[in-house]
Amino acid sequence: MSVEIRRTDPDELRAAANTTRIALLDGPPDDETWTKHEVRWRTLRSFSAWEGRACVGHIGGFAVDTTVPGGAVVPTMAVTSAGVLPTHVRRGTFRRLVDALHHDAVADGVVMASLRASEAMIYGRFGYGLAGEALTATVDAARATPMHGAAVGGTFELVGAADLHDVVRPIYARATARPGHITRPEWLWQRYFENVTGHTVENVVVHRAEDGSPDGYAHYELKWSDDIFGDDHGTGTVHELWATDASVEVALWQFLLTIPLVKRLSIDELAVDSALFQSVRDYRSVRVTMKWDEQWVRLLDVGAALSARTWTDAGSVVVDVDGVGRWQLGDGAARASSATADISTDVAGISAAYLGSTSWWELVASGRASAPDHAAITRADSVFAHRPLAFCGSFF
Ligand SMILES: CC(C)(COP(=O)(O)OP(=O)(O)OC[C@H]1O[C@@H](n2cnc3c(N)ncnc32)[C@H](O)[C@@H]1OP(=O)(O)O)[C@@H](O)C(=O)NCCC(=O)NCCS
């Protein structure tokens, strides 16, 4: 029987969710779980694969804005809930789902797609490039403190469930120094803080500047162990930490690492160039436990994306994107060009470089781009590079 790809009807969403969960090695949601997740599913641009009346595959995307180098935001489709039943894989079904989703988003003027991959091997062939990495780490509190640059004044306050969203969301909205930051839909905010009820071990601490305005927060949980002779009887996990200024970020780390009884903290997601590394007293107090491919980005409208970010005034480079177009980038702008290319790549290559973190040096070295000489690569890197590095910090 042939497989049909089509937009998912609202009354088919639960079948699509069942299929996706099975593909992702989970069970179909029970009624209670579905009630919780339905609101998210109803916001999705959703395409599914059907064999007769059976849903055999799904892919979805929800709308966010992504901060790009220079601070502008571009309309983005955050791709999610992707999977094909194990009984139907390797027949081209997923490729057809991805094509349908991209085509639909392009028709609506969406500029880029972004996703968090279950496996790093899947998405390059669909034009996605690795645009931003992230770390997980552990920190030894005694060795890390006192930290350099942590004295910013102001106060710390534990916020209760009642005020939580009103306080943290404006901080998050202003903490956009890094490309790759996304706006969060309502359901994602609810999911991030669903366990901060005032009756669990999860806490949110807010930093207030001396004028009383909130300018940073950390979401964390702590655990006490009965092994009082061990090194690990006070441990915790930092789920996220956002600040409007790097010095406030450091002050929040210092606060967390000097909570009485806390010996060691795990960090769920950390920027590769986090201020933590240079600020701790002992560099080796931070042990990186994993470096991973956080942001897979696919430019859907390459010209619009290139025009949305800023470019250095000092020099330019001509980049040819196979089958899409050629642009001169730099000298303050992105312009269509017919000049000889300094760098040649495909849409996955330009997508990887777009946020200013993946270098052309890496892309040429790995055969994902080509350049006539080393000088062209160096110039391309100086035109594209952005500091601080890209980091999203929102998992979906
Ligand atoms: C990943 C998945 C969706 C692919 O579905 P599928 O219908 O088998 O994919 P297709 O048959 O359309 O394959 C498309 C291409 O991707 C390749 N591919 C698919 N899954 C792959 C994987 N896990 N690793 C490497 N390559 C993969 C295929 O070989 C094919 O390549 P080609 O076009 O160059 O020949 C499916 O295996 C799945 O549901 N996996 C578990 C859930 C999951 O990981 N979902 C993704 C969440 S981010």
Describe this structure in words.
This protein is of the alpha+beta class and 396 residues long. The chain folds into 3 domains: 4-115, Aminopeptidase (3-Layer(aba) Sandwich); 136-293, 3-Layer(aba) Sandwich (Aminopeptidase), CATH 3.40.630.30; 301-384, Nonspecific Lipid-transfer Protein, Chain A. The protein has 12 helices and 17 strands. The strands form 2 sheets. The chain has a 12-stranded mixed beta sheet with strand order 1-2-3-4-5-12-6-11-10-9-8-7, with helices on both faces. A 5-stranded mixed beta sheet has the order 15-14-13-16-17. The chain is globular. The relative contact order is 0.14. Bound molecules: coenzyme A. The site of coenzyme A (COA) has 18 residues, from strand 4 and helix 3.
Helix content: 25-40%
| Strand fraction | 25-35%
Distinct bound molecules? coenzyme A
DSSP summary: helix tally: 12
- CATH class category name of the largest domain: Alpha Beta
CATH superfamily of the largest domain: Gcn5-related N-acetyltransferase (GNAT)
Average pLDDT value? Answer: 96
Shape: globular
